[in-house]
Amino acid sequence: MSEQEWFAQLPTLYAAAAALFTDQAGRVLLVKPNYRDHWSLPGGILEHGEPPHMGCAREVAEEIGLEITADRLLTVDWMPPDGNRPKPSVHFIFDGGTLDAERIDRIVLQEEELDDYRFTDDYASLVPPFITARITASLNARHSAGPTAYVPRALGSGSCSWSRAWPKRDTSRSRSGSPMPSVSSATCAERPPGTVSSR
Known about the structure:
It is built from four helices and ten strands. The protein has helices at 3-8, 52-64, 101-105, 129-144, and strands at 14-23, 28-33, 43-45, 73-79, 89-99, 114-120, 149-152, 170-173, 179-180, 197-198.
């Protein structure tokens, strides 16, 4: 077997990168993709051969129009194959920093993919548990100035050892003035929000 053939038969995975932004009150910036029923962090799938920090900066520029240097990695999140996703995926969450009023005013949404954005301190009511775990781990890593958090989702996590009740409707308002849709159902997360591993 040649070296090229050996590399070709190795297992592969998907990779994505996102940024954690907060405002001066400590609220987390979320965006609402028009192709999902939940909110998320600004970010997306890495292109072929693209380093995670560069992919994060590119996705942030494309989605919300801000230029950043993604130089601090807060969280690495691994997820096993699930449903329509036949391969594992790894997600890199970088520190986007704290946005002041001037930079917030410069946010321009990518209209092709995003419907809205908002800052919130109640992110757990707007995102599924696996994203809640990423955000919580990233906030903890930022506030502690400690090591990067590692948040793997357990294999076979279709059966949960814990559960949480999701609100049917969030009565807060988005920047457009419309009621905020909330997650009404969720799949099993790797662990309860706020419980993270780090190294």
